[in-house]
Write a structure and sequence with these properties.
The complex is a heterodimer of chains A (239) and B (84). By secondary structure, chain A is α/β, with parallel strands linked by helices. Chain A is 20% helix and 33% strand. With 84 residues, chain B is mainly β. The chains are: A alpha/beta (239), B mainly beta (84). Chains A and B meet through strand 6 and strand 11 of A and strand 1 of B.
Chain lengths: 239, 84
């Protein structure tokens, strides 16, 4: 593990949703990370007060450029700054890459089911990008749950990456797009059964999202026959 | 109070352990459950952490930052297994 705090410089930002954006950061000496890892971000106020938060990394490329994507939490201490105020050229203190459990490695050849809620797509995006970049033919399927279509991150790139080896199932929990075949609703056992790789194929499953979402999905997956050890979860708090 | 999971321990505990603690398997004193610490439940208050067993909810470990020091309790873990 590398506990050293490094200084990164914001290279660019991109609006992803009405409340979220992605941030591209150059970190000299970063040297790449595994798909699914996270980083701790430390902000220091003029009076010396410090706040540290963990953010998943959306990229898994070698080199010193990484991407985060952050959703603004209404009562957040750090996320409003990252989403609303941070500018290219600004510096951020970062510690990482961190975590070796919620990761996918290109040498894994078995089927993979990804399940993301909202900005929980971020570490899954790193896996999807690593899958494509490595030319992996492992079967990848993503179930992406968002409140409305405009709340989805990385839409153009996800659509572009869809292939014979990677497919996407969308779930809209508040408002479905016009003409969508099913009404808006949460991810429950029925959706999981119809729109994910079945337990009989023994996929590695990665679930990331708000705590309530992750726990409901993980419990339903085990009830559908997935081995608890094959379901890896990452909760980021919230409702 | 909301919680996150043991994945978030990687950074804070990297000050104490040279290995990735989130991928280490811990055994709960309370119920004997063995699980990677990434699966534990982490309750956060500022920079202080209370880590609970995801099976029985007993406290596995705590991390408290004092002025100029960091205090770790491990009373709820009776074994830790790490890959080498």
């Amino acid at each position: 593990m590398n506990a050293v705090w490094k200084v990164g410089v914001v290279a660019s930002t991109r609006t992803e949703t009405p409340t979220g954006r992605s941030i591209q950061i150059d970190v000299p000496g970063w040297g790449g990370n595994l798909a699914g890892q996270h980083v701790d971000v430390r902000l220091t106020a003029p009076d010396g007060y410090q706040a540290v938060r963990s953010y998943s990394i959306a990229t898994a490329s070698p080199g010193d450029r990484l991407e985060l994507a952050v959703d603004r939490l209404p009562d957040g201490e750090v996320s409003p700054y990252l989403v609303d105020d941070l500018l290219p050229g600004d510096e951020l203190e970062l510690r990482g890459p961190l975590g070796g459990w919620f990761v996918w490695r290109p040498e894994q050849t078995g089927p993979v089911q990804l399940i993301g809620g909202g900005s929980g797509i971020v570490p899954l995006m790193a896996m999807i990008r690593a899958h494509a970049a490595s030319g992996s033919t492992a079967r990848f399927r993503l179930l992406y749950s968002v409140r409305t279509a405009e709340d989805a991150f990385f839409v153009p790139e996800l659509e572009q990456l869809a292939s014979a080896h990677f497919s996407i199932d969308w779930v809209y929990t508040r408002v479905a797009p016009e003409g969508w075949p099913v009404p808006a609703g949460r991810v429950g056992p029925r959706v999981l059964e119809s729109s994910t790789i079945p337990a009989s194929e023994m996929p590695a499953v990665f679930v990331c999202g708000p705590t309530g979402f992750v726990e409901a999905v993980a419990d339903a997956l085990v009830a559908l026959g997935h081995a608890p050890a094959s379901v890896k979860t990452e909760r980021f708090g919230g409702k | 109070m909301s919680h996150v999971d043991g994945n978030s321990l990687a950074g804070p505990l990297s000050d104490l352990f040279s290995i990735d603690i989130t991928d280490a398997v811990g055994r709960c004193v309370g119920c004997g459950d063995e699980a990677v610490l990434a699966r534990a439940m982490v309750y956060v208050s500022g920079t202080d952490l209370v880590v609970r067993c995801s099976n029985c909810d007993d406290v596995l470990l705590t991390v408290v930052h004092g002025p100029g020091d960091l205090r770790l309790t491990l009373a709820g873990l009776d074994a830790l297994r790490v890959a080498v």
